[in-house]
Design goal:
Elements: H1 15-32, E1 35-38, H2 43-56, E2 60-66, H3 72-84, E3 89-93, H4 100-103, H5 109-128, E4 132-134, H6 148-154, H7 160-163, H8 168-177, H9 203-218, E5 224-229, E6 232-237, H10 242-245, H11 248-258, E7 265-268
Parallel strand pairs: 1-2, 1-4, 2-3, 6-7
Antiparallel strand pairs: 5-6
Helix pairs in contact: 1-2, 5-6
Length: 285
């Protein structure tokens, strides 16, 4: 089960505004009638799947990509959440690793991942009579580097959270009010995002990252990333937890984790964890 972190309390949100946005989301979903949901089990897609189930019942189906880029722990969390909240849930096989444009790992890698998922979902919708594809992008995501949003446009995948004007903070607050355990689940991108642009993405190197991250989680850290740089690993730990990671004894434990995985050098990033650090090479300095 994924470790949860205590987030800094956001600025108090207006209850009436939150309620209005949730009702707007429910109305949007109701109009879609029968939907397939791209569902990873993260905070956003979990809330979207819960909302769709509230409105549409069995006329919604959450689909999770059975991909090497999704950690097994996240798959278990996704299954558990769907089961506990009565959400219909299935896996679909995706083959993005077979696409050389994906494995080349250029800055548009995410486009080819989402293109593959949405293509598979489109086929499922046609075969089983679903009227719309939806995914859990929120209003705050629109300004980030997210090529997958271009794939969504091509396949006409709708973004109900954006249509309802919901931000990340609002989604977490609504999830908390609904009693969803995902309200404070840490943000988590796919394992392929741990591989720097220009280094080929393979099932082997994302598996190496996954094993390393599971070992760090077992040490009790909450928010972190393992960044793969060929024979060097760069470990990002949340700044709040960084003092513990900087302990000499802990450093030895990290070395003991990563040297057997094939890394020659084990490093700790002194800036700590920050979301999307792999995109820093795309920004002008």
């Amino acid at each position: 089960m994924a470790t949860l972190v205590t987030l800094t309390p956001p600025t108090p949100l207006e209850p009436m505004l939150l309620a209005a946005k949730q009702e707007r989301l429910f109305a949007i979903l109701r109009d879609l009638k029968r939907v397939l949901i791209a569902y990873s089990g993260g905070a956003d897609s979990a809330y979207l799947a819960w909302a769709a189930q509230q409105v549409l019942g069995d006329n919604c189906l959450a689909l999770t990509a059975d991909s090497a880029s999704m950690p097994d722990a996240h798959k278990r969390d996704a299954e558990r959440f769907a089961r506990e909240h009565g959400i219909r849930h299935e896996y679909v096989a995706t083959q993005e690793f077979e696409n050389p444009l994906y494995s080349a790992n250029n800055s548009d890698r995410c486009f080819y991942c989402k293109e593959e998922l949405f293509r598979v979902m489109e086929n499922v919708a046609a075969e089983r009579g679903f009227e719309a594809l939806i995914y859990g992008v929120n209003k705050d995501d629109l300004g980030d580097h997210r090529p997958g949003q271009n794939a969504a446009k091509i396949y006409q995948v709708k973004a109900p959270l954006v249509e309802a004007g919901l931000t990340k903070a609002e989604l977490r607050e609504l999830s908390k009010l609904a009693g969803l355990e995902t309200w404070n689940r840490p943000a988590s991108a796919c394992l392929s995002s741990r591989i720097p642009y220009g280094t080929a993405v393979t099932k082997e190197n994302v598996r190496t990252v996954e094993v390393g991250e599971e070992a760090i989680r077992a040490l009790g850290f909450s928010q972190f990333r393992v960044r793969f740089h060929e024979k060097l690993v760069r470990v990002e730990i949340d700044p709040a937890e960084l003092p513990r990671a900087l302990d000499v004894g802990m450093a030895q434990k990290l070395v003991a984790i990563f040297k057997p995985l094939g890394f020659h050098y084990v490093t700790l990033d002194l800036e700590g964890y920050r979301q999307g650090s792999g995109n820093e090479v795309l920004r002008p300095h």
